[in-house]
# Entry
Amino acid sequence: MTESRLPGNRFHSQDFTKPDGRPLTLYGVAPVSVTSEIPSPSPEAVDARPVMRWHPLRGEWVMYAAHRLGRTFLPPPEYNPLAPTSDPEHPTELPRGEYDIAVFANRFPSLTLTAPQPEPGPAGTRAGIGACEVVVFSQSAQGRLADLSGDQMALLIAVWADRTTRLAESGTVRSVLAFENRGVEVGVTLHHPHGQLYAYDHIPPVQARMLEQAQRYHTEQGRAWLGDFVADERAGGERVIFDDGLALSVVPPFARYTYETWVMPARPVGLLSELSADEQASFARVLKDALNRLDGLFGGRMPYLMTVHQAPLDGEYPEFPLHVELYPYLRAPGRMKYLAGTEQGAGEFANDKFPEVAARELKEVVL
# Structure
């Protein structure tokens, strides 16, 4: 066990090793303490052998991880693997104690830093190198990410930054994506509030294209795209949902989903770790506000996918725009947004509502 405080001397963390060898880090607004043994659902490690194959026409990798078929799927509440262990005879992933957020290596990873070289296969086959971590937002199984307190939400921003820094220290990881899937409509297999971190040994296509476009803009305009985007949205105002001064949320003018929401810092940076403590706190407030507005829109929990986009980690990329994207999967009460022919076949989205109208509706939600 090792104990430390996150950069800025604001939050606390402790590192542990699980019985099956996986790392666990507990984070807290207050000092972390543990009152039980560090558990694991099994003392034996899962034999993870992820493989990647290159798609020659799309120019992207596809991950294969057959061992993931054995992962937990929609268990009853008494078998929740993300709750603190209450019965030592039936251990979960987490110990009892005082802490707010837990991060551990995924027991069923799609990528691992120690993936063995696969058997010979089609051209473009290689080991699935990277890392997959689970981020448990709360010890409570009943809440939402938006139910975190202001300090706990700021802690989550710091946790994402800390995990990104730690994963980069492997020397292998080039890009880290934090994300949350919320709702069975988007394929959630565990209802306990949690997200994930995927660390890649390459720059994935979405981030690579963002970087390419941001660098092109910087070359042509001599400025960061994010700075100009924030200035333009503030000047117009019709798509800004909430502006906290150091961070803001908008429905972007090019939104692909009906109520797509972006959260971004007012100052252009590429990594969460580059934000000051005050900027991280503002970012957290705006994110919490955005999540609450989505849930308040139709009077129930909005299924969504949240992705945190940060700059690549293999160099300096000041042009890359740090931001969070929220993709709500309801376009109207009871009506899902499905990715159909044009979205899947051509990669071009059809949206039922102009972003200006969607932003106005989100601003009108009473919190």
About this structure: The first strand starts at residue 2 and ends at 5.
